[in-house]
Amino acid sequence: MYRKLSIAAALFCTQSFATYAASDIAEGTLLYQQFRCGECHGADAKKPFGKYNAILAGMNPDDIYMKTKRFVESRSHEQVLQGCGEPPSHVQIKKISDYLATLPK
């Protein structure tokens, strides 16, 4: 009895996590467009414009998150971020990072 209940709970949690992750990826896609990230990194995140912009597709999401978070918080590149409007929040950066990690390199 307990084993069946444990298996059912595990399957439910796995399915809920997968749905949540998929919705975060979809939201990350929209946020990438909303914050106009593609203007510097390319619409597909593979063709950056300028020699200082990184290819983001397929990168480790934690690396993208940490670098972007530091970039936004340092305010050292405010002129670059002006085209984005309001900078993304930490939650939005995480969703964008998770989306970019799903893209093929």
Describe this structure in words.
The structure is a single chain. The protein has about 100 residues and is mainly alpha-helical. It has one domain (about 1-100): Cytochrome c-like domain (Cytochrome Bc1 Complex, Chain D, domain 2, Orthogonal Bundle). It is about 65% helix and about 0% strand. It has five helices and no strands. The chain has helices at about 1-35, 40, 60-75, 80, 90-100. The radius of gyration is 17 Å and the shape is globular. The protein starts with a helix and ends with a helix. Residues about 5-20 have low confidence and may be disordered.
Low-confidence stretches: 4-20
Radius of gyration (CA) equals 17 Å
Question: How much β-strand is present in the residues?
Answer: under 5%
So what's the overall shape?
globular
The CATH homologous superfamily: Cytochrome c-like domain
* CATH topology value: Cytochrome Bc1 Complex, Chain D, domain 2
- The CATH class turns out to be Mainly Alpha
Distance between the termini: 46 Å
Structural class: mainly alpha
Average predicted confidence as pLDDT: 81
The total number of structural domains is 1
N-to-C order of helices and strands:
HHHHH
Give the strand tally: 0
Share of residues in helices:
55-70%
Assigned CATH architecture = Orthogonal Bundle
Number of helices: 5
Secondary-structure blueprint:
Blueprint: H1 2-34, H2 38-41, H3 61-74, H4 78-81, H5 90-102
